[in-house]
Specification:
Elements: E1 4-8, H1 14-21, H2 27-30, H3 39-44, H4 47-57, E2 65-70, E3 73-82, E4 107-115, H5 124-138, E5 143-146, H6 166-171, E6 175-181, E7 184-190, H7 191-194
Parallel strand pairs: 4-5
Antiparallel strand pairs: 1-2, 2-3, 3-4, 5-7, 6-7
Length: about 200
């Protein structure tokens, strides 16, 4: 049985972050910068510039993301950070259902999962989410929010599941607080209520 561990995405783990991000989907070209920039800013940057932005960001504390390892190999990634550090969220209509003011620094958000193709189907998304919950709690979050897709409503291409799947969040104790579109949900875990 494989050993799965999760660690903060720090600058000394940049090569591991790159390995996790480049194994499938848009992670390689995005460098997990989508939620940090406007569309125009994002489109204007080269991949190398996005990589450099990520490298600099990984020096921040608390870490803005986590890396999952399977038997020591970087296999997955999750972005989990205060919403205020992910400004594009507030401008995304599909996420308009949040019951919390967008400038509330105590609301964190899980916004991006990447699992390398060869490690899919091993429960890494659930492990990453479990670690993201603990990371947000330790970082002082009052609420952890996410915007997963309800795959029971609509078939969704794998590449579009980077924001997560509703059933995984519900199994982790999140509750649905809004449904801006039939397949798009807003879920939250309130740490005060969760205990």
């Amino acid at each position: 049985m494989a050993t799965i561990t999760v660690a903060p995405a720090t600058q000394d783990r940049f090569d591991d972050a790159e390995h996790a991000l480049t194994g499938g989907g848009d992670g390689a070209s995005c460098q997990c910068q989508w939620w940090l920039l406007t569309g125009r800013q994002f489109d204007a940057l080269t991949r190398a510039e996005k990589e450099e932005r990520l490298r600099i960001e990984l020096a921040e504390s608390p870490a803005p993301a986590l890396i999952a390892y399977v038997d020591g190999v970087a296999a997955g990634w999750v972005r989990v950070a205060p919403r205020t550090k992910q400004p594009r969220l507030s401008r995304t209509r599909a996420f308009a259902g949040s019951p919390h003011p967008w400038d509330d620094p105590d609301v964190w958000a899980v916004t991006c999962f990447v699992v390398r193709r060869e490690f899919r189907g091993q429960g890494l998304t659930a492990k990453l989410l479990e670690a993201a919950v603990e990371h947000a709690r330790a970082g002082g979050a009052r609420v952890l929010e996410a915007y997963p897709t309800d795959t029971a409503v609509r078939d969704t291409p794998t590449n579009d599941l980077y924001i997560g799947i509703l059933s995984v969040f519900l199994a982790a104790g999140f509750r649905e607080v809004a449904r801006p579109k039939p397949h798009r949900t807003t879920v939250e875990l309130d740490f005060a209520q969760a205990g």
